[in-house]
Predict the structure of Alanine--glyoxylate aminotransferase family protein.
Amino acid sequence: MGPGPITVDPRVLRAMSAQLVGQYDPAMTAYMNETQALYREVFRTRNDATVLVDGTSRAGIEAALVSLVHPGDRVLVPVFGRFGHLLREIAERCGAEVHVREVPWGEVFTLEAIEQAVREVRPHLVAVVQGDTSTTMNQPLEGVGEVCHRHGALLYVDCTASLGGNAFEMDAWEVDATTAGLQKCLGGPSGSAPLSLSPRAVAVVDARRSVEAGLRSEDEDAAPAPARIRSNYFDLGMVLDYWGEKRLNHHTEATTMLYGARECARLLLEEGIGNSIARHRLHGEAVLAGVRALGLEVFGDVAHKMHNVVAVQVPDGVDGEAVRAELLHDYGIEIGTSFGPLAGRVWRIGSMGYNARKDAVLLTLAALEQVLRRHGARVPAGAGCVAAQEVYA
Ligand SMILES: *Cc1c(COP(=O)(O)O)cnc(C)c1O
């Protein structure tokens, strides 16, 4: 019941135990095409360029940024938590001239603040996190793409933590590039990063396209080295050629992760994205009501919280890490702490993917109550479960 990775849906585990097939086996290429179509629905986009990057969510972020950002390009990063700092650091490693704007942890940016920063910086790309799990905040994105496009910038969004549990509308919000992972609301393991690029973003990648020597035909030129994307593995031009009609060899697709990613998308779409968001909202509200009824304070601007995770202040006089250890040891329940300024100061309780269930929420609240009492906190008996049950009633 932490902020991810989460318990994997048994259907995803079963899908991942299927036998492997060769990368150009018709069954495999059909799975690849099907997975692209599924993730177009998941991201709510018509983008042709919708694929999986093999690696954890961070691999998706690196692929998007290294492919879209030339050394020297200006990049604007609105930072409201740990993962915003990660975008900044990856953009810096791409050689970008990075401009950061920050709000205190526990808050999000207004559209006006983002527009103001875009006017000042005039970036080539704005890179922003949707749901930053470190603070649990969910940055509103409506209008951000429109602002970026009005000022000639591309918009990249990391929606790893929020996708499937909170609304994400790639096309309607004019997002040019997005990446995710499976281990949050999608109910899968880490290790695959679904990614989608708008035609605008593909045009930027196309301008830097190259084909490896040994794969090129005689009449094709190599792109001059300075223009080339500065990573081979994360060169989205080559990744798109691999997933596209050419099926030009690049890496060997991680077949088992493809099975897993495909099953995650199938689960989400069978449930319906709207139903999945409603389920995450319901269980998130139950956790919120439960911890408040136990007398705990919630961290941050609750009105902008993601549905799938709650950050709770560790009460004075209670050893937060000892509580986490006892929950795990005695009850088999894992909850998280956070990073940097919040390390040890908050607990993060997730209810996402396969764990967004009533039994999981009620057991967590009951166990937390017992452990808190053993650690000297005065908590009203049964209050957490009663409050959660009222949300469910
Ligand atoms: C959890 C999370 C990630 C995880 O990245 P990995 O490489 O899969 O560990 C990335 N971005 C955000 C916003 C997250 O919440």
Q: What stands out?
A: The two ends are 22 Å apart (CA to CA).
